[in-house]
Amino acid sequence: MEQTDKITVLFVGAGNIAFGNDNVLWNHSQRIENRLGANLQVIGIVDPSTERVTQVLEQKQSSLAAPCYQGAQHYHSVEDAKLGLAKGVLTPDLVILGSPPYYRGTEHLGRNLELQIIAAFGSSCTIFAEKPVSTARPEQSFPVVKALAASGNAVSVGYMLRYLKVVQHAVNMIKQENIRIQTIGARYTCAYSKIRKIDWWNKAKQCGPIVEQATHFADLCRYIGGEVELPTVNALALEHDEKSGTLSSMAVDESIIAEEDRIPRATTAFWKYESGALGTLTHNIALHGIRYSNEIIITGDGYQLRLVDLYTTPTLHIRSPESEAEKTYTYPHDDPFYTEFAVLLDSIEARKAGAASISKKSTNEPLEAASILSSYEDACKTYELTWRIRDASEESTMKRRQEAT
Predict the structure, then answer these.
(1) Model confidence over 105-131: pLDDT tens digits?
(2) Which end of the chain, N or C, is more open, meaning fewer C-beta atoms within 10 Å of its C-beta?
(3) What's domain 7-160+335-375's architecture?
(4) C-alpha to C-alpha distance for 224 and 178, rounded to whole angstroms
(5) Which class for 165: exposed (0-12), middle (13-18), buried (19 or more C-beta within 10 A)?
């Protein structure tokens, strides 16, 4: 197929993760527009909702990015997009897979968007997939890992906190100083009073806060500390019907959710890393308003590294053998969402620039992806860890209640 000189983008999913709203930090389309400017050509949006896609396109057509969306079409499925784009002799350089996770991450029809994308467009497109990779059990995602590896597509998963400069500063220091990590402790305290999406409160729909939300901090624990010995994972939960589980500022009517599907108010997990280090993760649903509170504390012989407020004012505090006083590092205006897309788009531009003179040795040869910090396989390992924490917390709750009867 003939391609435009511009970077062609196809959105699969027209929700807030891709196009934002007035209550969230994320808006992938905006970051891509900022990075590419006039070199961006959005060739389509795949979503079953005509109303939502119409709204998105109307907003874009009245914005400075309007030329980038000229000619963008609405498709109800990936197959429709394949057929429609073939008429215009176009194929996407980048597919943004931002649909709800229920529709992704398995081989099952209707829940296999990754496989639909590579079947429709082959290895020529780079895929950006949102987290978590699915809502199915983790073992159902392993065949998708193999399929994507065999297809040769470059894939990046949206664990954007890995790209924060304070996180990279900490990781680089650990390597340079050969710090042998002893413990990593992560805390994620959610501000819940503006969470109006009823499915978020239903673990049968979105798997609960560890799998859906604390996944970012479980991922950083793995990224910084290395692989976890999954059999060592243990967890406890504060359930919705316990005395301390009462919430006073909920924006939804939780009574419409079956009691067994209501999410815990707090979960604490601990485990052992393959290195021998210890890890802990605590997730709380506690704060009012919209600002979350979070931190990760890394300790090693002579060192303590504290990563604080990673969503708002990312800050790194370091105590080292040189001094008991902490040194503080901040990087104003650091935008990890922008950085993760800049990395991806740089690799696409490099590939397109060399396409005229350098032919690929094999149609299955992977695209250049050296700077991608979260591969699909790696993201599935984080997904597996979060499910192990959820399972362990539910098992402990069940055991405690059985012993009480």
Answers:
(1) 999 999 999 999 999 999 989 999 999
(2) C
(3) 3-Layer(aba) Sandwich (3.40)
(4) 13
(5) middle
